[in-house]
Amino acid sequence: MVADSIKAMQAEGQKVEVRGFLDDNDAKWNKKFLGFPVLGSAEKLKKFSDDLVVVAVGDNGIRKKIVNILAIDYDRYFTAIHPSAVISPSVHIGNGCMICAKAVVNPESHIGDHVILNTGCTVDHHNRIGNFVHLAPGVHTGGDVGVGKDSFLGIGVSVLPGRKIGNNVMIGAGSVVTCNVDDSMVACGVPAKAIKRRGGL
Questions:
Q1: I need a surface site. Which of 34, 57, 63, 122 has the fewest CB within 10 A?
Q2: Which strand ranges, in their side-by-side order, compose the sheet holding 104-105?
Q3: What is residue 200's predicted lDDT score, i.e. its pLDDT?
Q4: Rounded to whole angstroms, how far apart are CA atoms 184 and 165?
Q5: What does the pLDDT look like over 134-159, one tens digit per residue?
C-alpha cells in the first residue's frame, strides 16, 4: 500500500525517490515488488543512514516492534499520503504514517506517529488518533472522536461523535461504537460491546 501511494505521488509529479524495500525474509532479497527492489534485511538501513523510512506493516504490534528495534531519529520517518486523500490544512499528521487512497481527514484532527489510515476511511473534525493506530478500510469516525494508541478498528467500523476508544483496543469489522470503550478491550457488534480483554503490546 505504501509503494502504491508513492507511485501515485510520483505520477502526480511529487519528487519522491525510492531506494527500495528492506525485509528480513531472505527469499525476497534481490527481487522486485511493485517495481521497487528488495535490497536485503533491515540491517542494511545502517548503510542508508540519510534515507527516510516508512515501516510498511499493517499489524500494529509488529510495526511498533520494528520501530523500537530500528531506534532511528523520528525525523527520519516519512509519511506516505496517496494523492487522492483529502486532508484539511489544519490537520496535524505525525511521522511515519500511511494515508491510503480516498482517505479523508477533516479540520483540527490530530493524527499520531506511525498511524495507518487505510483505503476510504474518514476521520471527521477534532479527532485525536494515537500513535500506532490502524483504521482499516471503510472506517468512519464522527466528530470529536478519540482513539488511543495501539488500537485497531476493523473494516467498516463506525464510531459515533464524541466517543472515546482507549489504548490497545480492537473493534471488530462492521461494528458501530455507540459508547466509550475502555483500554485493552475487544469489542464488536451493533452496537459494539466489550467481549474480552486483550493482551498488551
A1: 34
A2: 86-87, 104-105, 122-123, 140-141, 158-159, 176-177
A3: 63
A4: 10
A5: 999 999 999 999 999 999 999 999 99
Number of H helices, E strands in the chain: 2, 22
- When the pLDDT of each residue in the chain is averaged and rounded to a whole number, the result is 95
Please tell us whether the domain made up of 80-195 is placed in CATH 3.40.50.1010.
no
CB-CB contact of 184 with 197 (8 Å): yes
Domain 2-76 sits in CATH at 3.40.50
Residue pair 81/101 in contact by the 8 Å Cβ criterion:
no
- Mapped onto helix, strand or coil, the DSSP state of residue 105 is strand
Distance between start and end Cα atoms, the chain: 24
Task: Give domain limits for the chain.
Answer: 2-76, 80-195
Q: How does pLDDT run across 37-60, given as a tens digit for each residue? A: 999 999 889 888 889 999 999 999
Find the catalytic residue in 82, 125, 126, 140: 125
110 is annotated as an active-site residue:
no
Phi, psi of 124 (to 5 degrees): -80, -175
Does the reported pTM lie above 0.85?
yes
**77-91 average pLDDT score:** 97
Which distant-in-sequence residues (6+ apart) come within 8 Å of 11 by Cβ?
Answer: 83
Give the DSSP letter of residue 151: -
Owner of C-alpha cell 459494539: 192
